[in-house]
Amino acid sequence: MTAYRARLTDQDIHRLVKAGDADDRAAAAHKLCRGMERAPLSPEDRAAAQKILRMLANDAAELVRRAMAVTLKSSDLLPRDVARKLAADVDSVALPVINFSPAFTDEDLVEIVRAGSAVRQVAVASRPQVSRDVAEVVAEVGCIEAVRTLAANDNADLAERAMNRAVDRFPQSGELVAALAYRQALPLSVTERLVELAGDAVREHLVTRHAVAPETAIRLATFARERATVDLVDQAAASADIGEFVARLNARKALNGSLLLRALARGQMTFLEHGLAELAGTPHQRAALMVHDAGPLGLKALYDRAGLPPRLFAAFRVGVDTWRQLQAEGKDTTSDGFRQVLLERFLTQRPNAPREDLAYLMERLDQAPAPERVSVANAA
């Protein structure tokens, strides 16, 4: 134990073992634990150090035990048996270890959660890493604060079943709904439920950040009573099956020239192809060839067969030609920068589009982050 004993004087060891004053022993314990944590230890030194930790865990003074718990809360030096002993201690000693110690197994953490202490459940839920098995138990039996903390912890492995169980138990908790809504990834089933439960701001985040089912998107975009609405162009782009999405739109009579023009001006060419194919009753592959036909007749024939208003065709022609020009310049047609340049060039050509569509496109142009717009403009 030479590596870290050099940092301790004989007086430190005497204070740790013999001092009657808890403050003195706690100070010595803190110094000892800090020295152990920082020093390179041989296997023999490590075993000896852990014997001292077991002794400290049995100290009668809470202050001493807490000094060890706080100093070694994240250390792999703390043996599992000592971590479990500290976890069963008073909250001031237990919580730092429960919250951080890598010594615990999933079984240990599940046991802590099932014991029912709310503050300890929260400590488990906020750990730097929470496994799927532990997260599922927190969602199943944890108090509302623990479940909300778990939902807000992006390092918690939350399965779809656990998320749904959390919503089952606490559907009225706006904080839980918001915490789930702002996670990096959400299953479709969870998103659907949260859309129904969320307030306006959270709902708008959900439908912007995550894909929702076509029926939900159409309903939220159609009814004026919904203040936070869905942008169907964004939802189509996020859909795993655009063909199915446009078919649902058409069945609900929500697929029209205005929507397709907005999609085209924002670079969503696949949406346009599928939309025209659906309205014209033509296979998507054939519709795509007609849209990209360099001659004057392909797009016009498909457009007319789709039954769209003749007055809008010139705007569609401008959009497709602009898209093709940018593609010929070598732009990545899937990038945000491409869509931004396309929208800018489309609007500068003053297309003969309805006023409400132009207002929508101008609003989308204004929503682009300023640095991105500058860099894209320079790239163009």
Description:
By secondary structure, the chain is mainly alpha-helical. It is built from 26 helices and no strands. The protein has helices at residues 2-5, 10-18, 22-38, 43-57, 62-71, 80-87, 91-100, 106-115, 118-125, 132-141, 144-152, 160-169, 174-181, 188-197, 200-209, 214-222, 232-238, 242-251, 257-265, 269-280, 284-291, 298-305, 313-328, 336-348, 355-367, 370-379. Helix 12 (160-169) runs parallel beside helix 14 (188-197). It starts with a helix and ends with a helix.
Give the secondary structure arrangement, pairings included.
Elements: H1 2-5, H2 10-18, H3 22-38, H4 43-57, H5 62-71, H6 80-87, H7 91-100, H8 106-115, H9 118-125, H10 132-141, H11 144-152, H12 160-169, H13 174-181, H14 188-197, H15 200-209, H16 214-222, H17 232-238, H18 242-251, H19 257-265, H20 269-280, H21 284-291, H22 298-305, H23 313-328, H24 336-348, H25 355-367, H26 370-379
Helix pairs in contact: 2-3, 3-5, 5-7, 7-9, 8-9, 8-10, 9-11, 10-12, 11-13, 12-14, 14-15, 18-20, 19-20, 20-21, 20-22, 21-22, 23-24, 24-25, 24-26
Condensed summary:
With 380 residues, this protein is an all-alpha fold. Helices cover 69% and strands 0% of the residues. Among the domains are: 1-73, no CATH class; 244-380, no CATH class.
Classify the oligomer: single chain
Helix/strand/pairing category: mainly alpha
State the low-pLDDT regions, or none.
1-10, 223-229, 369-380
Strand proportion: under 5%
Net shape: elongated
Give the helix tally. 26
Order of helices and strands: HHHHHHHHHHHHHHHHHHHHHHHHHH
Q: Distance between termini?
A: 66 Å
Radius of gyration: 31 Å
> What's the helical proportion of residues?
55-70%
Rounded average pLDDT:
82
Characterize the largest beta sheet: strand count, sense, and whether it forms a barrel.
Answer: none
Using DSSP, what is the number of strands? 0
